[in-house]
Design brief:
It is built from nine helices and no strands. It is an all-alpha fold.
Length: about 200
């Protein structure tokens, strides 16, 4: 189950490329070829970020999430893409994919966590579940970083976390190299976002 196809494509491309480089089984790459910088990164992801960045010239000191200081992200996809590296870094700070999955299990979401790892549909999680696992301080920091209400971050993380686990476990179990794949993918995505921001800000 994926409410946002672009999210699945981005994560599938990032994780798939890192898995292939390690000779891991299941590194299909989500059909993106060269990863985020390939077919998707040059067009879809770039256009999402570019649309978000336009208009910032009226308020360079405004948070990234408020282009031109006028309003929050114009669409959910832009918010998901910009929140994604923050979510990935949060997973790393909290012990990696296995430890975060255990956090969800400890909060009574074992069935959901197992569904994300299996090859079937992902069972959804709601906002309160995200708040229990991530915690109010982390959520507030992410919201401030992006310049959006905390509730938007909660709703976006409810989409990101199942999809992140799903794309990390194409064969139904967490690979030993999961945290290495996550680290490489996070750095690659951060660089892609930075490159798009630079290109947009350089435009007249």
């Amino acid at each position: 189950m994926n409410n946002n196809p672009l999210l699945g494509q981005v994560l599938g491309g990032l994780f798939g490329q890192a898995m292939r480089q390690r000779g891991m089984r299941g590194g299909t790459g989500g059909g993106l070829g060269g990863g985020v910088g390939g077919a998707l990164g040059g067009v879809a992801l770039g256009s999402v970020l570019a649309g978000m960045m336009r208009g910032r010239g009226r308020g360079q000191d405004q948070p990234v999430g408020v282009p031109g200081g006028g309003r929050p992200y114009a669409n959910q996809t832009a918010l998901l893409v910009m929140l994604l590296p923050l979510a990935m870094r949060w997973v790393q700070r909290n012990g990696g994919m296995g430890a975060v999955l255990e956090k969800f299990r400890q909060k009574g979401m074992d069935r959901q966590a197992q569904s994300w790892m299996s090859t079937g549909d992902n069972q959804p999680i709601d906002g309160p579940s995200v708040e229990q696992v991530v915690g109010p301080e982390e959520l507030q920091q992410m919201a401030q970083r992006l310049g959006v209400p905390q509730e938007q971050v909660v709703q976006a993380l409810a989409q990101i976390m199942p999809e992140m686990v799903d794309k990390m476990t194409p064969e139904g179990q967490l690979p030993r190299e999961a945290d290495e794949v996550l680290d490489e993918s996070t750095r690659k995505l951060e660089q892609e976002i930075q490159d798009v921001e630079h290109r947009e800000l350089a435009k007249p």
